[in-house]
Amino acid sequence: MKIFVTGSKGYFGKPLVEKLKQNYQIVEYDILDGKNILNYEKLKSSMKGSEIVIHAAAIPKPDETKTFDDYFQTNCVGTLNVVKAAIENKVRKMIYISSTTYYACERGIPIKFPLKEDNKTAPMYLKSDDFKCRDSDIAYSESKIIAENILAFYGLLKKMQVIILRFPRIGDKEGPYGTMVSMNNAIQGIEKSIELNKILWYEAFNIANKMDNVDISKAQKILGYNPE
Q1: In angstroms, rounded to a whole number, what is the distance separating the alpha carbons of residues 206 and 216?
Q2: Of 141, 217, 193, which Cα lies nearest the Cα of 16?
Q3: For residue range 94-122, what is the model confidence (pLDDT) as tens digits?
Q4: Residue 119 counted as domain residue
Q5: Are 144 and 102 spatial neighbours (Cβ–Cβ below 8 Å)?
Q6: Predicted model pTM
Q7: Phi, psi at 81, each rounded to 5°
Q8: Which residues make beta-bridge pairs with 98?
Q9: Which CATH number is 134's domain given?
Q10: What is the rounded average pLDDT for all residues in the chain?
Q11: Number of structural domains, the chain?
Q12: Is residue 46 part of a domain?
């Protein structure tokens, strides 16, 4: 099976590719190689023949040197380019690397726990005075919400299968409110999504270590996710 991976040389993309190469043919696409997801024609051409796309390219965290426009262009317009190129290339399934920042799980934002896939996003229940965070925290969160909504349009209309994986901080350090997912568990979430034979036109899943404040029961039930 040929799998196309954006952000293949990033913090998560690099170990993910090394693991997937053991069982799949991997096509890498990364800005470090001069391959930008904002270059639609190069993106579309590079994706030819792929059956699955894993979209990991993004500004991956709050960064005070980035503006909202930076986040919008890379995380939102870039995601639109990826899904459009995938549809033109008749890709069967897209797996999108999202984040628990979808729920505004960032420091200085009093969100509701546990994090569940059907939780309201923070702007639906918080007021402006509730936010004690940086601009970049909101910019990152909103960019992921917008990107997921772009993918929802194509998935819900059955243009292609879309699986959203919402990760907290990946690695061995805790993120906001103690949330985290190990590298091995994050990669397992990807592998389970690849292997899933059931058709899911649009579904989102939390992928995290076992913890009280992130509900992973949906991923366990449908994907067979079993964190270490």
Answers
A1: 5
A2: 193
A3: 999 999 999 999 999 999 999 999 999 99
A4: yes
A5: yes
A6: 0.97
A7: -60, -45
A8: 166
A9: 3.40.50.720
A10: 97
A11: 1
A12: yes
